[in-house]
Specification:
Elements (H helix, E strand, L loop, with lengths): L1 E3 L6 H9 L5 E4 L11 H14 L3 E8 L7 H18 L3 E6 L2 H11 L4 E3 L6 H9 L2 E5 L9 H9 L5 E3 L21 H12 L3 H16 L6
Parallel strand pairs: 1-2, 2-3, 3-4, 4-5, 5-6, 6-7
């Protein structure tokens, strides 16, 4: 499991939690929803954490244009700085892009030399193709299990399998059978089942492909 941090104050606890289980892999980042708590010094701290702790990714970071009172310029400052760190350290990024997929694509193109995943993908099939061309995978989680989530269900059904990742975003974004409850990583099997049904293939096909995609992107040891 990839376990991303979202603010500097949580990095030590995340490091300690992941150290207790060989199946947990940390990513350290500064999330756009928490820009009020971020400081310029945290970007310097992040560099030091990357050098010392060697995480599998940077994130969760990104842009959020859904919350109107979040300063977009400040978001961009922190996001671009983290993208530059990812390029420098040759690490993937876990990206939040709520109502901001085009802006995220623009930042990725501007910085260049990047790879990663757009988590809880909210965009179109065309944007997914653009991101794939830029070296990014598409993360699909609990929202795909809701029958009215037509946009994400189309994406999950049609993107090339080598660009797809499964996620839960636990404790957020529970699937449709656990609406309103605290989400759990084990519920990724529900996401898997729904996507397999949308694509008309056996769940094992999706499980194998997305596991290999995750191992490749995050340089994880193979579980095969």
């Amino acid at each position: 499991q990839i376990v991303p941090a979202i603010e500097a104050a949580t990095w030590p606890g995340l490091r300690d939690a992941c150290a207790r289980d060989a199946g947990l892999f940390p990513a350290y980042g500064l999330h756009p929803l928490l820009i009020a708590s971020h400081r310029e010094a945290h970007l310097r701290d992040l560099r030091a954490w990357i050098e010392r702790e060697r995480p599998v990714a940077i994130g969760e970071c990104g842009l959020d244009y859904w919350v109107e009172d979040l300063d977009r310029d400040v978001q961009a400052t922190f996001f671009d700085a983290q993208l530059r760190l990812a390029r420098e350290f040759d690490l993937p990024v876990v990206v939040h892009a709520r109502r901001a997929v085009d802006a995220v694509i623009a930042s990725i193109k501007r910085i260049g030399g990047l790879r990663g995943v757009i988590h809880s993908y909210p965009g179109s099939e065309e944007q997914a193709r653009q991101l794939a061309d830029l070296g990014f995978l598409i993360g699909i989680g609990g929202p795909v299990t809701y029958e009215r989530a037509n946009k994400v269900r189309r994406v999950a059904a049609n993107v090339p399998l080598d660009t797809l990742l499964l996620e839960t975003d636990a404790p957020d974004q529970p699937d449709s059978t656990h609406r309103g409850e605290r989400n759990e990583p084990a519920r990724i099997t529900r996401v898997l089942e729904v996507i397999a049904g949308l694509r008309g293939v056996d769940a094992v096909v999706i499980a194998d492909a997305t596991t290999r995609n995750a191992e490749r992107l995050f340089a994880l040891p193979s579980i095969a």
